[in-house]
Amino acid sequence: MSRRKKIYEGKAKILYKGPRPGTLVQYFKDDATAFNAQKKAVLNGKGVLNNRISEFIMLKLAGIGIPTHFIKRLNMREQLIKEVEIIPLEVICRNVAAGSICKMLGLEEGSALPRTLIEFCYKKDELGDPVVSEEHIFAFGWATPAEVSELVALSLRINDYLCGLFAGVGIRLIDFKLEFGRFVDENGNHIILLADEISPDSCRLWDIETGRKLDKDRFRRDLGDVTAAYSEVATRLGIIKTNPGSTPTLSIVPNETQ
Ligand code: TMP
Q1: Spatial separation of the C-alpha atoms in residues 31 and 42, rounded to whole Å
Q2: What is the pLDDT of residues 98-135, one digit of tens each?
């Protein structure tokens, strides 16, 4: 890793300069944070699982025509991605009330929403990523109206697809967060790519039968068995192969890159 130039270090990932111009290497750490990094822990194996789960989902989304930054997985903790100009917005897509919307609007966790909701947050750690309206986005020039329409259309397509993907393995997709970036393709077209990651760090995933949480809320709320839950998601999606009667066989080596 030290061979490479570090471009950026976030709470759960590091970006290094890639082997070719226009590429980056995205490294998944085991670090977990919540409440804007007021709560921190190292969860052995989380980075390995998120690397694999995010790869799986990005490839599935590419298969239905969603343009993504993902190029290929390099090893246990790293993937090669296209370098994009990140749009400074987090796009939250909600199917069921949970988390901050319950606090904000006094809703009961698990209650149905009248329809799928899209929210935008301004990506600014110092401010705790506040929810913003389209008026704010346009006034401050974070994205254009055409870009926001594209973000909404892409997010709703991703939501439809992922609801089905997870329902197929007995998981309810409650909500999730997406990030997007601007990219100029080989023909000189300016396009928007899905960036960052999609993993149990960035989604709420509940078992359909029991409602058991299989996502980062286990860490946020001290429910325990965080990586076991992530591992269960990977197993159900078929990413980790299991032999009947045995435990999942993804060799998880903390702090190794290969
Ligand atoms: P929220 O209910 O806390 O606003 O979270 C909505 C969704 O976004 C949930 O699936 C978790 C995800 N999320 C992130 O990926 N990163 C974050 O920093 C936050 C606050 C939420």
Answers
A1: 4
A2: 999 999 999 999 999 999 999 999 999 999 999 999 99
Give yes or no for residue 203 CB within 6 A of ligand 1: yes
Which residue type, as a one-letter code, is found at position 162?
A: L
pTM across the whole model: 0.94
- Ligand 1 center–CA 125 separation, angstroms: 13
Among protein residues, the one whose CA lies closest to atom 14 of ligand 1: 202
Ligand 1 neighbour 176 (Cβ under 6 A): yes
Helices (H), 42-144: 46-63, 100-105, 134-139
Candidate from 127, 201, 202 with most ligand 1 atoms within 8 A of CB, to mutate: 202
Check pocket membership of 100 for ligand 1, CB cut-off 6 A: yes
CATH 3.30.470.20 location in the chain: 85-207
Q: Residue 218 C-alpha to ligand 1 middle, in angstroms? A: 13
Class of domain 6-84+226-246: alpha beta
Please, how many CA atoms are within 13 Å of residue 129, restricted to the half-sphere of its CB?
17
Residues of the chain with CATH 3.30.200.20: 6-84+226-246
Q: Which CATH number applies to 85-207? A: 3.30.470.20
Bridge partners, 71 (sequence order): none
